[in-house]
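User: Modeling request: complex.
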Amino acid sequence: MKTRPNYAAGALSAMWLVLVGVPIYVMVSWSLQTRDSFLDRGPLAIPGSITLSNVAEVLDSGFMRYLLNTVIVTAASVGLTLLVAIPAAYAIVRSLSWFSSTMFRIFLAGMAIPAQATIIPLYLIINRMQLYDSLTAIILPTVAFGLPLVILVLVGSLRDVSAELYDAMTVDGAGPFRILWQLVIPMSKGAIAAVGTYTALGAWNQFLFPLVLTQDPSMRVLTLSLTSFKQEFQINVPGMMMAVMMTALPVFVLYLVARRWLIAGLAGMGSK
Amino acid sequence: MSVALESRAPVRPAPAPPRRRQARVNRPNALYLLPALVFFGLFAAFPLVLVLYLSFTDWNGIGTPGFVGVDNWVRMFENEAIWDVTSTTLLLTGLCWVTQTPLSILLGVWAAGAQRNRAVLSALFFLPLLLSTAAIALLYNRLFDPYVGIGRGFEPLRNILGTTSGALTAIVIVVGWQFIPFHTLLYQAAARNIPKVLYDAAYIDGAGGWHQFWYITLPQLKNTIITSSTIMIVGSLTYFETIFLLTNGGPAASTRTLPLEMYFRSFRSYEFGYASTIASVLVIVATAISLLIVRFSGFGKMRSTLEGL
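Assistant: Request completed. Predicted assembly structure:
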């Protein structure tokens, strides 16, 4: 059977491409111009000459420090998430006790908790733990709010591991930890990569927890630094655009390297 | 298809009597769940309870919260402004759903089909997913600036953030720009899973493209529409960064939503007790809407759209 091309949908997609493309084009085009050239030429004009002077300006405003903070927060969030989520998912799938199935239901319900509504009690808890204004303060709730979805995706993948494999390892005399290490983790590499990428993206791009749980510039992460760039740069819009691009650059590289897992991780959100 | 469905089913072998002793040895115990439970309990579940408690206190951000009974709740219900904030929140939620859902479905179904250059196009499509909400909001904040933005050369956009309807439109545009690619992804995955035999049968019966879309594609996407709508609606209720950085609730307070009101009351005016009341409302409304969607759509039963195939 030959399918007719869908012209209406094609036209809509072309329109969408323009809508996505124009702001991206504007961002790139502005960021490569000097302030004067940007103001002289129209906002949509192709840059007359290209300059990288804005990169230096962004670097001068403490970019590397904020980048390091974001890298620490992201790496720690991914590491901690996997460290606690993998054993939990394993127990949920393999344990026969009522406790693990109840926990699974609690985690499922946990996906409906809006993080925004918990910032006030979190601020209180973090303060009482003497963690206010530290990177740890950002990491802990980031892990907690990521867990439900991560566990759900991991459980889905672990259920595909056949019972015979577990039985075979048991016959060999393997305990639960060795099974986790030698069977569960190797068998769910794809799912682990997907949730890891997804967690990294969320940790990198988050804004609210850093906003309310840190204060000092030395603890500032990249997303938060964009708001201060906006104030510092005032009408230096090209500098601002370069800052936006530079915060997204590592994510873009990740996208090129791990596109499959990123999409799988994002799509995992829909399977709930 | 049946193979895929079977492998999805929980694999739990019934413990046969001779194997029982072994089974007890090789299965993980509750300790494996403990770390996750501690994290989730302390930083996600406990705050949910604590916010409700704080709504009955006069906490100012420092010191010990003092119990004041239902004062904050009475104050909130007597406050006219909270109704404006609530209706703005619901209006935005509605507008976001109405614009994003049809576009995501059409784009997703299109992206699921076969056409040339799809790889390049879909790579571009998903670019907004890579940027942080903060970056997108600030990008558009500059783009919509009357003095430096696109409005310099395009009159209809010049003062878009300066009027109430303009600012609301701007938020809907920015939120759509950011999230339509994600929902498109959901619909694309779902549309690819629709069995081709359904279309073949319809084609033999003489159904055209429009009929196929209306009578096969849409009904088959039902579960995805519900999932996507729930994410969209609960998400819209709780948008903070986009509005905070794009309009900051302005002009005046016309785009202030419940999360913004909560933030301004707590971290700006130090009325953490009163702000907790608003946060509690947010939790209640979001939960109620999720439950309503689940109940009235029959999603709880999770009836497969593949039944009878």
